[in-house]
Amino acid sequence: xxxxxxxxxAVVLLAVAAAATGFxxxxxxxxxxxxxxxxxxxxFSRNGSSTSEMSSYGVVRDRExxxxxxxxxxxxxxxxxxxxxxxxxxxxxxAVIDSHNLKKWDGFQKSSSMVMDGNGFSLVVxxxxxxxxIASGSNKYPKGxxxxxxxxxxxxxxxxxxxxxxxxxxxx
Length: 172
Known about the structure:
2 domains; 3 helices
């Protein structure tokens, strides 16, 4: 009886160790379902010390109708826009997500406790398959942040211009 308990304990321990090893090895790798995946919702915000350094860009999905809109907020409500989304816009945004490896940002959540003021960001993406990206930082940023942030903003600002809107507000 005692030998059986030891064998069961050893098997359970090996199973837990194998699962933990697999989890550790897979963590941080690109999630294959997310590559090129259709975007369900998207939210990217940048903030700073002044309202001129605040901007939010989003793809919002209406829960009742399923319709999605492109949302803009410059200067913490100073200038806002809401436009219907088209498939070309979503494909361009997906290309930015893929080309800048934003899936690797998932789980990034860092801040500098040594800075009393400063800048930060937040990124939340959900894909139609159910997976997504959640990342945020305050005076700490993931690798390639500046280039990715500029690419995201360019996609959204170009969509505004494509729809005949020239924003008065310029981002920080």
